[in-house]
């Protein structure tokens, strides 16, 4: 999904340069330039992954600040074009009115749940990134600046831009690529498209590429390396992204993300409950990496059946909260519900298990 969105930024840049005909034929809803852009983005992501975490870090260190520069420039342009009416529109956004049936407070928590669902893979696989930091302080400072501080600043910028699009274009636009396409500036279009491409690729690598690559490798570490896991991930992602416009987008991005998060959320709840409540923060590190029968974490033939039961029940319920009409009021809370239920069920099933078994 993110790969496709990154390709739209590159396609915007190519369209601005070459101005193709409006009636260009499409395949699965994607134009020729769209397919070229999509394939280039896929190849670029794989190349970055193959080069290693150091290259990815350098790429993100360059792309991150540049995104802020372009977004602030876009905000100022939209603000200038909107004039005083922008403040009025901002006031209506903060008034708490909206179409969400349960009200503004429930809408806020539903959005928070969707955001957590989007980063579900990163949350579960946080160790894949934390192991590269040099100290715990560095990790703490990085998380503080990169999450609450960065998110707050970026949210304010996004709110101003979104409010401005209502005034300037007469409709709410939330995709930066769509907004830039409406701004009559070839220079800004090219710079912004390049920046959004870099930012989306960076986010996609961290949130959706690296975690599954390592997870696939961990399924059979003797046969699948992290690099091979990355290639498998890229192949699967290529087909998902290619089908986004024609099929998957019809589901809706919120439902798609919430469903993915609903499946992964119980894993997070199980991991947290197991470490803090069941194991009392005590782990046998040697046995943790052992598949020998009789070791602390061998369980039943190498599988913890109680944890699997907790995961199955919690994930079915959390996915149902997205799709079953009777549970529609819980839509948006799928991640929170899945994590909570997974944790409770795992604790109840495992509470009599000795801490080191």
Structural notes for this entry:
The protein is mainly alpha-helical. 73% of the residues lie in helices and 1% in strands. The protein has 15 helices and two strands. The chain has helices at residues 2-18, 32-51, 53-82, 85-94, 104-118, 120-124, 127-130, 136-169, 176-182, 186-219, 226-242, 253-278, 285-288, 305-323, 334-350, and strands spanning 26-27, 30-31. The protein has a two-stranded antiparallel ribbon. The radius of gyration is 22 Å and the shape is globular. The mean pLDDT is 81.
Summarize the structure in short.
The chain is an all-alpha fold and 357 residues long. Helix content is 73%, strand content 1%. It is built from 15 helices and two strands.
List keywords for this structure.
357 residues, mainly alpha, Hydantoin permease, two-stranded antiparallel ribbon, 15 helices, 2 strands, globular
